[in-house]
Amino acid sequence: MGRPKALLDWHGQTAVEHAVAVARAGVEGGPVCVVRAPAQELPALEATVVDDPVAGGGPLAGLCEGLAALAGRCQVAFACGVDTPLLAPAFVRAVLRSLRDGDDAVVPVVDGRSQPLLAAYRPAVVPRLRELLEGGARGLRDIREACVVREVSAAELLGDADLAAADPLLRSAANANTPKEWEALRGEAGQAR
Hints:
Elements: E1 9-10, E2 13-14, H1 15-26, E3 33-36, E4 48-51, H2 59-70, E5 77-80, H3 89-98, E6 105-110, E7 113-114, E8 118-121, H4 126-134, E9 149-153, H5 154-157, H6 161-166, H7 179-192
Parallel strand pairs: 3-4, 6-9
Antiparallel strand pairs: 1-2, 5-8, 6-7, 6-8
Helix pairs in contact: 1-3, 2-4
């Protein structure tokens, strides 16, 4: 991207401010945690902010820190990045409602791609995630080695009437990894306004 994704402009606010607002609406006012890179500058946020323990240590370490910060404050957490700016609160709620007894996590599959950074996780898995990290794991797909992870299809998600009305094409999963992709999503959101 050439600069920190968290600070990209999203219609007058930073990407991280937008992500926090969407997450808060999706968890219906519940706690929100932002995991930042060590010493990363962020705007003031209405969220708990914790530092990723190791710069470049991989997404598993960041997820573990965020879940640890939420432990005792919620039974289930929704994890997302700042690079999915079309994320709808209804998508967050649909994924959270998909978690069943016995599941440690629910990961959506949209357009044939697993979305572990648009997923629900139980904070109770933190000790198992720490064991994975101590064993050298870094990626979110490694979670399957220690946790019960259920995938939920796009069709299953769209069985949620609120999500089907708010985001029938599941554009919530559209992410940006280049400035051109970011601008395309900004334009798409601008047209919807």
